[in-house]
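Quick one from the shared queue. A colleague (R.T.) flagged ABC transporter ATP-binding protein as missing a structural entry in our internal table.

Convert sequence to structure tokens.
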Amino acid sequence: MSETVLRVNNLQTQFQTRAGVLKAVDGVSFEVGRGRILGLVGESGSGKSVTGYSILGLIEPPGKIAGGEVLLNGKDITRLKGDAMRQVRGAQIAMVFQDPMMTLNPVLKIGTQMIAAVRAHARVSRKAARAKARNALAKVGIPSPEERLEAYPHQLSGGMRQRVAIAIALLHSPAVIIADEPTTALDVSIQGQILAEVRRLADETGTAFVWVTHDLAVVSSLADDICVMYAGRVVESGPAADVIASPRHPYTAGLLASVPAEHEPGTKLPQVPGSTPSLANLPQGCAFAPRCAKAGPACTTTPPVQHFEDGRTALCHYPIEPISCQPLSLTSTTYRSAS
Ligand SMILES: Nc1ncnc2c1ncn2[C@@H]1O[C@H](COP(=O)(O)OP(=O)(O)OP(=O)(O)O)[C@@H](O)[C@H]1O
């Protein structure tokens, strides 16, 4: 296991609403090693994005981090405020959003924006900042980077804009990048190219990624490790290949069973039968029990975290026995670099 760069411990993020306190993230823990990619997967509303925003200190009232720690290279960043957090964000930990225009200003040239981003965290000349920006564009596979610096965002395709957003995130060689569904809106072949670049970048630069997605096909081929979230909790975690080959939590098994064999990256994860519960009205005990074929009498009480071989976990009273089955091929493309 590579050196841990991000450790999330018992993170709790809540929103005060008219319906009461919503526990959007309820005791989430995971860690990511240098150069590793963690896939954070689950249905809509499971708490993936709020987890990402919490790590970056981007939760605004009526939301708040109610407990837990986010250790970046061993230092708890949940305690940082204002400027101190802004210094960390962008330099040591960065975000890539689904819509690159969350990062890019439509009325400024790419070069102007990237130079400003470099100089926000480093005392360097404009010339040196421009060279750094050009290198970052080249690193994410953008052809003719010098020309692209002179372009406005609207002059680039969606895929190129997302590559620019990734290049901006990489400018300061952050320890961690949180990526929130950054390829979901893109054409499948462009998505495949970007995922291959991301795998290469993680391997070459050592930047760790937390990759938030609905799409198990993406996770199965891109991620080293998986956390499956349901109703604000991690219900299963472990090495991606092992979890996909032999899920131990009935929810993960349901997600996998609902993925067609020829599932293409970019399509939304089909739903497990039943609907996701309202966070304002969760059942007692296991939140998944009402949808679970394996639910039994114990499920009215909070399930324990079961620890299995190879660091795998499942939050379940009745975990599935390990099976030796053929590895499920969710996609014909793998995004692992050759090294
Ligand atoms: N500002 C907010 N106020 C109240 N509730 C919120 C707020 N932001 C998020 N939530 C709630 O937190 C829960 C988790 O949301 P989150 O966006 O993290 O889910 P997700 O798994 O990322 O889903 P999606 O993939 O659809 O974005 C949801 O029930 C959502 O309604």
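The two ends are 17 Å apart (CA to CA).
The domain at 4-92+173-315 is CATH 3.40.50.300 (Rossmann fold).
Added to the table.
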